[in-house]
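hey so i finaly got around to running the thing on Methionine ABC transporter ATP-binding protein from Sphaerisporangium dianthi. pasting the sequence first so u can double check i didnt mess up the copy paste, my clipboard has been acting weird all day
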Amino acid sequence: MIHVSGLRKVYGNGVVALDGVDLDVREGEIFGVLGQSGAGKSTLLRCVNLLERPTSGTVTVAGQELTALGRAELRRARQGIGMIHQHFALLSSRTVAANVAFPLEVAGLPRARRAARVRELLELVGLEGKASAYPAQLSGGQKQRVGIARALAAGPKVLLSDEATSALDPGTTQSILALLKRLNAELGLTILLITHEMHVIKGVCDSVAIMRDGRVAEAGTLAELVARPGSLLTREIFPLPEPAPPGTVTLTFAGRADEPVMSTLVRGFDVDVNVLGGSLEDLGGRPVGRLRVRLEGGDHAGALGHLRERGVIVEEAALPAETGPITEEPLPHEAEAIAEETR
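ok and heres what it spat out for the 3d tokens, dont ask me to read them lol
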């Protein structure tokens, strides 16, 4: 649904915001872009609907290359792309209904059809009784629901979310994420969202790209990345001290976190398992866990082989290389003295 290739954005002051970004978002998925401030994620989002014109590279949405379109064609193409903002971007002088109706007015939709569409959208986002209210009379969560309704007014197939929950409290954030998840399922929306919050990725995303310094450092489905040894996402979700202490083993259980794997090792391979740290998370409705352990005694190699056969990701931290006793070669004049002493 969204294909970004070789995207580069350099501002007039020489700052490189995007440095060769490639991204593929499949139709119907919720794709998260995770990164800290300055990583380039907001610039990427604005380049997807060409609110920012990239310096080079291409952006294709629903099979249409937006970077090749003229102004009028681009305006029509944008009707298929909705956008919700971090700080709501509502018109304070308009009622809730009038805010939602605004893009329909711009599109020239007759008044009766606008009114029907607004009622439908407010019901969809749970604001049936707020049509006559003004933004100043709404809570943060209600304002964001108005923003979502307005973004859906033209019936887009793609929804862009610019840090839509970062200005909200945790409880309200969860309700907005649940709404986005429901809209994704009911309307078949493809959602591309940017965030610096890991709980947003864990809560609603099917796939994720991690951005650093204007580049995509890692991308894929959550399932793929969790199952990838050394994954940045896994390290972000399950923070453990890095680097791992020598001789320890880090285990990632993707979908098997509720099985008694450790007790099987103790009984079947006669090893002692010392758990040094770990945690358990729910990702996409399945339990995923990460443990750092030290295995002692018994059939160490057999135990690790058994874990790998069970689909556990095993990362071993090597012991320091053993060295022999340190000997010092005598200097030439010292060698002569030693030789003289041994005569």
